[in-house]
Amino acid sequence: MLERFHVPGEEIVLVEENRLRHVTEQFFATQGMSIEDSKIATDVLISSDLRGVETHGVSNMLRAYLGAFRSKNLNPKPNWRIVRETPSCATIDSDAGLGIVVAPKAMEIAIEKAKKTGVGLVSLGNGRHIGMLAYHAMMALEHDMIGTCMASCGPRMVPTFSSKRAIGTNPISYAAPADKLPPFVFDAAMTSVAGNKIVLASRLGVPLEPGWIADKRGNPIMEEVYLNDFPEFEDESKNLEQRYASGNISSSVSLLPFGATREMGSHKGYSMAMVVDILGGILNGNKTAPTGEFTGQGHFLAAYSVDAFIDSKEFKTLMDQYLQSFLDLPSNSEGKEVVYAGFLEAKEQEKRMKQGIPLHPEVIDWFTSMSKELNIDSLV
Fold it and tell me: What's the CATH fold of domain 74-355?
């Protein structure tokens, strides 16, 4: 994640992982979730924070989920079920359950199918926020499998030449195992910037890069801007509970496809987002954002058994050689090094497991307030 989105060093409050995990589990339990589901949901969020992906950790997501629970848009005890199945495929109705709970269970189904047939594919409809996609894709790694996860989301993206939002950020994640090196783990929205990073930018008061957002008419803003420079844009860090109450990210800011403009390839980001809608939405019968009937997220998860294609030990040796070739490339910038997706996140996780998870003081204040309101243990 870009350095600008991290909590400034002088403001950091370090919280020990197990303490944050304990309080977060209590939070979910107060919303009616089972102990097992509370632990699963917590593990997804804490894993995000450990890997340095604060956008999808406790800072943003707990208060967002609180709003959705209170508006009854989230089902704390979903009766999710398989509605269609073959030896290698399954379609699931998530029953408005939190994606960070239902998706890990769906990935377990995909993995079991891949053990038997070589591949497991699961499409989920009627879902809710899925958190950091990499968590679900990475579940395949310990089984010597390649994992994939996609999320068909509510309208945030302005398609190329459109004057209105019509499609989601629709992130995609891939995870592939290696031997001695950290695995390859790619996780990215199909917009130029993830929606939750707008929230962080607003909270931290940092500028947005050219090509990240569009104006009210859908025109790309190709200069560095601050949100408060535009009166039509709300402060994205305020009233998160209310803005997320619908279960989707309600925002005044329109995001551009990656590529930003047609000349720079925005049609590619826009089209990749359509692929996600097809696999994670239409394939399970979900109403997708462009139809104007979007009612909940759709998800697509896949597990591919490496041994179905090549000996897994040979594959991981080849992956080490492949990944190392990028690490060995000469840098063109002083103080910068060439890395691959997942490398820095793995290093960050090692550090944070030892030193603690950095939180912004505003987040600590929110936890303090919620601990009193929900009658759970305090964080600090």
Answer: Ribosomal Protein S8; Chain: A, domain 1 (3.30.1370)
